[in-house]
C-alpha cells in the first residue's frame, strides 16, 4: 500500500468520524475533529455537566494522539 494511502487511513478518521474503524456515524453534520469538538462547548456548560464532559474529551484526545503517533512512525519509515 502506498504511504499516502496508509497515512490517509490514519488521519482522515480523526478529522471526520466519532466512531472507531468499520463503524458508521449517523448521517448528520459532524464538526472537524469530532471527538474533541465538545471542548468548544465546555465553557458554556452548566457546572454539574462539565465533569461528565471530561471523559469523552480525554478519550478523544487519546484517540487523536495515538493516530498522530502512528502517522509519525509511518512517515519516519517512509523517509
Question: Could you explain the architecture of this structure?
Answer:
With 79 residues, this protein is mainly α. The chain contains two helices and no strands. The chain has helices at residues 3-16, 47-78. The mean pLDDT is 87. It is 58% helix and 0% strand. The longest helix is centred in the last third of the chain and has 32 residues, at 47-78. It has one domain (3-23, 31-78).
Question: In total, how many beta strands?
Answer: 0
Overall structural class, as computed from helix and strand content, comes to: mainly alpha
**Span from first to last CA?**
15 Å
The number of helical segments is 2
Global Rg? 15 Å
Strand content: under 5%
- Domain module tally: 1
Largest sheet: none
**What is the string of SSEs from the N terminus onward?**
HH
Helical proportion?
A: 55-70%
Shape type: elongated
Which stretches of 5+ consecutive residues score pLDDT under 50? Answer: none
How confident overall, as mean pLDDT?
A: 87
List keywords for this structure.
58% helix, 2 helices, 79 residues, mainly alpha
List the helices and strands and how they pair.
Layout: H1 3-16, H2 47-78
Helix pairs in contact: 1-2
Summary?
With 79 residues, the protein is an all-alpha fold.
Amino acid at each position: 500500500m502506498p504511504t499516502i494511502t496508509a497515512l490517509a487511513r490514519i488521519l482522515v478518521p480523526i478529522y471526520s468520524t466519532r466512531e472507531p474503524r468499520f463503524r458508521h456515524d449517523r448521517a448528520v453534520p459532524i464538526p472537524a475533529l469530532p471527538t474533541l469538538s465538545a471542548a468548544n462547548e465546555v465553557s458554556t456548560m452548566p457546572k454539574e455537566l462539565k465533569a461528565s464532559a471530561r471523559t469523552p474529551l480525554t478519550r478523544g484526545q487519546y484517540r487523536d494522539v495515538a493516530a498522530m503517533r502512528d502517522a509519525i512512525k509511518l512517515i519516519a519509515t517512509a523517509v
